[in-house]
């Protein structure tokens, strides 16, 4: 029996003053809806977004911010070609890849953090 039941949210680090760029990129470009942060956390800056599956994406301000070049969230899509066209329309560079056995693209958010968007999902094969 697993003690964990799933993922509640992902947090992506960003520099102070990131809110406008977060809303433009994650809200306007990627189409996520912003959700209200708890009152006690609003003073910390950043922004929270709802993911279509009920989970959340948190953009959190961190001192001495350094972008994540390797560690990254991977979002799912059912139509990667549509995502690629949409990113191109917004002038956002991406790199297609199928090395892991599924179609996917890598891109960066406004602060240089690595993101992945995968069509379908990575298959899980449990070890014996």
UniProtKB/TrEMBL annotation:
Entries under Gene3D superfamilies matching the protein: 2,3-Dihydroxybiphenyl 1,2-Dioxygenase, domain 1 (3.10.180.10)
PROSITE patterns recorded: VOC
Name of this protein: VOC family protein
Any Pfam family the entry gives: Glyoxalase
InterPro entries linked to this entry: Glyas_Bleomycin-R_OHBP_Dase, Glyas_Fos-R_dOase_dom, VOC_core
Residues of the VOC domain: 6-120
